[in-house]
Write a structure and sequence with these properties.
This protein is an alpha+beta fold. The chain has one domain (2-79). The chain contains one helix and five strands, in the order βββββα. The strands form two sheets. The protein has a three-stranded antiparallel sheet, with no helix packed on it. Strands 1-2 form a two-stranded antiparallel ribbon. A hairpin with a 5-residue loop joins strand 1 and strand 2 (17-19). The termini are far apart. The structure holds zinc ion (ZN). Zinc ion (ZN) is lined by residues 33, 35-36, 38, 54, 66.
Length: 83
């Protein structure tokens, strides 16, 4: 399915990479997109997998870029021996 990304990692207020399960649900997560720094909402408790979503729904077209970049940077973090 198109646009079915699981965005499990985000940046918290301190710029630390955090997992969706380690933050409060919804806007209370106070996380930002590591790529565009837009505020994110944590989606937990769905039937679907947990993940972050951008707060603004107007930018859907750009969001896949964020997901891709986030994935790439997480791969880099992993291969360089952790955060
Ligand atoms: Zn973004």
């Amino acid at each position: 399915m198109m646009g079915d990304f699981v965005f499990s990692w985000a940046e918290d207020e301190d710029g630390k990479i955090v997992h969706v399960d380690s933050v409060p649900n919804g806007k209370l997560c106070r996380c930002r997109c590591p790529y565009c720094h837009e505020s994110l909402v944590a989606k937990q408790g769905d039937i679907r997998e947990h993940g972050f979503a951008h707060n603004s729904k107007d930018r859907q077209a750009n969001l896949s870029i964020c997901y891709k970049v986030t994935k790439v940077s997480l791969v880099n973090i992993n291969s360089s021996g952790g955060i």
